[in-house]
Amino acid sequence: MFTVLTLYHNPQDEKCKQVLALLEDEGVEVKVINYLKMGLTRDEAERLLVKLNYPDPMMALRTEEEDYKALGLASKKLSRGEVAEILHKHPRLLVRPLVMRDQKIIVADPPKRVLELLD
Questions:
Q1: Which residues, 6+ apart, have CB-to-CB distance to 105 below 8 Å?
Q2: pTM score over 0.85
Q3: Which pLDDT tens digit goes with each residue over 82-114?
Q4: What pLDDT, in 10s, does the model give residues 16-55?
Q5: Which residues pair with residue 101 across a beta bridge?
Q6: CB under 8 Å, gap of 24 or more: what pairs does 102-107 form?
Q7: CATH of the domain at 86
Q8: Which of 40, 71, 76 is nearest to 58 (CA)?
Q9: How would you list the strands of the sheet with 5-8, edge to edge?
């Protein structure tokens, strides 16, 4: 058996709920992190960005969120450190659902993509 999967969970998000249900149906132990309630430290956000390994760290931001528009992020090019600071201050902007197994992290969109971590 493998280690516990970690789900960065927004309990109001349907895709997050679907991912959690899929994992529970598979009998997988899941550590659920409600990052909206708990927040993200700047260091946590930076670690997530490193693991996501996007060529542009801004790909980790949800562009349809009001905070994204209010901060005028569409016209900016930000470093990983700057994106980590934004995620610390505005965790709702984090792409979701994020699921991590050991050092591998994926955005489980569509939700069934989480099954890739079970192989």
A1: 48, 51, 52, 98, 99
A2: yes
A3: 999 999 999 999 999 999 998 899 999 999 999
A4: 999 999 999 999 999 999 999 999 999 999 999 999 999 9
A5: 104
A6: 102/2, 102/3, 103/51, 104/51, 105/48, 105/51, 105/52, 107/52
A7: 3.40.30.10
A8: 76
A9: 30-33, 5-8, 98-101, 104-107
Domain containing 83 equals: 5-118
Exposed, middle or buried: residue 45 (CB in 10 Å: 0-12, 13-18, 19+)? buried
Q: How many domains does the chain have?
A: 1
**Token pair listed for 18:** 């679907």
Token pair for residue 107?
């955005």
Residues 6+ apart with CB under 8 A from 82: 57
